[in-house]
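I had to read the description of the data format several times before I understood it. For illustration, here is how one protein appears when written out as sequence plus structure tokens:
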Amino acid sequence: MVILGPGCSISSKELFNFLHLLELPINIRLTCYGANLNGEPDYVMEAVNRVRELDPTHIFIKFRGFPPGDPRRCRAKRGGAREGFHQIEAEYKLLPEVSYALEHPKHVELTQPKKIPVDEFTEIVKEIESKK
């Protein structure tokens, strides 16, 4: 799934046209959030890599759990609403912050917490137990 985040420099239609011009043997389905790609993994990844180059901080990729038409998930076969759509909708709301972080990377240093001696830990546990 290719998801165009808010602020993306291309539209879904432009994405669709770009993917077709790659002339890769993949299936492309235009969606409200971007496009769904299906085909041999190497060709799909080639398309994904080329698409990401268009706007690397606003184009996102999400891998589907099941292929299109899979009877376990396909609403055409089982009926009902699109189960994954609500998840994509929730994730879409976070994309402006993700884009900002990608555009303004900051160095973060993580320090490991220091271990305390067993005797000190035992005293802390005793103190908590005595307050009960």
Observations:
- The radius of gyration is 23 Å.
- Helices lie at 12-21, 41-52, 75-78, 85-92, 95-103, 118-130.
